[in-house]
Amino acid sequence: MASLPTAEISDANATHVASGDVRVLHPVFKIYGQSTAFSGPIVTVKVFEDNVLVRELLETKGEGRVLVVDGGGSLRCALVGGNLAQIAKNMGWAGIVVNGCIRDVDEINACDIGVRALASHPLRSNKKRTGEKNVPIYVAGTFIRDGEWLYADNDGILISKFELSN
Question: Helical H runs in 67-138?
Answer without folding.
Answer: 82-90, 105-109
